[in-house]
Amino acid sequence: MAQSVRQWEENSMSTESPRRLFFPAAQEVGLESFEIPNLAEGEVRVRTEYSLMSTGTENIVFNRIFDKGTHWDNWVKYPFHPGYCVVGTVEDSRSDEFAVGDRVALRSGHQSLSVVPAAKCTRIPDGVDFQEALWFALAKIAFHGALVADHYLGDTVLVIGAGPIGQMAVRWARAAGAKTIISVDSAGERLKLAADGGATATIASGIEAAKEEILKANGGELTRLVIDTTGNAVVFSQALELVKSFGKLVLLGDTGKPTDQRLTLDVITRGLTIVGAHDMHETEQWNARSITSLFLSLVADKRFSLNGLITHTFRPEECTEAYTVANRERSKTMGIVFDWRAA
Prior knowledge:
Blueprint: H1 2-12, E1 19-22, E2 30-33, E3 43-52, H2 55-63, H3 71-75, E4 86-93, E5 103-106, E6 113-117, E7 121-123, H4 130-133, H5 136-149, E8 156-160, H6 164-175, E9 180-185, H7 191-196, E10 201-204, H8 211-217, E11 223-228, H9 235-240, E12 243-251, H10 266-269, E13 273-276, H11 288-300, E14 310-314, H12 319-328, E15 335-339
Parallel strand pairs: 8-9, 8-11, 9-10, 11-12, 12-13, 14-15
Antiparallel strand pairs: 1-2, 3-4, 3-6, 3-15, 4-5, 5-7
C-alpha cells in the first residue's frame, strides 16, 4: 500500500493546488489535489492549520468494519474523504461575520483549504490555541451524550473507554458537577489523561472484569449512569450489568455491527433505560455552533483540561504512517493530528 500511494503522489500531485486525504479503497489512503470553488456570498475560505483524526470513526471507515445495510454501509463510498475536525485562518471572506486573519473552527475534511458558509465556522477565542480548539468536534459528540445522560450535581458516572470520545465524556461529567466519575479502559496509558480531565477513579481492565473495582470506587454501589464510548458491540451486554437499578446506559460509541449487540435481563428486572446519542442529534438550542462556542469558552476559562491529549503529529505526506499507527498502536494513541501549515 505505501509504495502505491507514494508513486501516485509523485505522478499526480501539484504543490500549488489544494490537497486533501482520501481513501481510494478499504485500508488504503492517499493524498490528492483538488479544485477549490470560488467564494459565494456569505462564504469564507479557510486555510487549514491543523486537522484532528477521529480515530473511532475513521478506523471503522478505513477498515470497513461494518455490516451491510447499516448507515455506515450507505455512507461510505469510494473514493472517501475522511475527517471533520479542522482549525484554520480565514484567508478570504464574503461574510460580514469574519474578516481575513480570523481564527476559526469548522467541520471539514483533512484538507489544506476549505470554502464553507460562514455559519459553519465558530470563532476561536483569544487565549485558546489551535491545538486546543481542535477538539471541538469530538467534544460536541460527547456533549450529546451528556445531554441525554441528564447529569446532575453529585451524580455518579462510569465512562467505558478512555479514547478521545471517552476523554471528552469525562470532562463534560466533571463540568456538570458529577461527584464520582470512573474511567475504565484496558489500555492503562490512557487513564492518566482521564484522571487529568476529572476522573475520580481509573481502572485499567477490560470491562468484563472491572465490576468489583467499580463497586469499590463508588462506595459499594453501581453508578447511576454508564456511558459506553467504545463502539464495540460486545461491550453492550457487559455495560448493562454495571448500571445501577433504574439507572441509564448511554450509547455514545456508534458500532458498525449493531446485530452483535445483545440485550440482557437487566433491562427488565432492574428497570434500566437505554438511550443513544449521536453527532447528528442537533436541536435549535444545542447545535454545532452553540455547543462549539460553549466548549471553547470553557477551554478559554481553563475549565476544560486538554493537556497532553495530542500524542502524535504527522505531515499530510505521512498519511500512510498516520493510519498505520492509528490501527496498530491504538492503545498508545489519543489525538492524532495532521499539520497543514507547510502544505
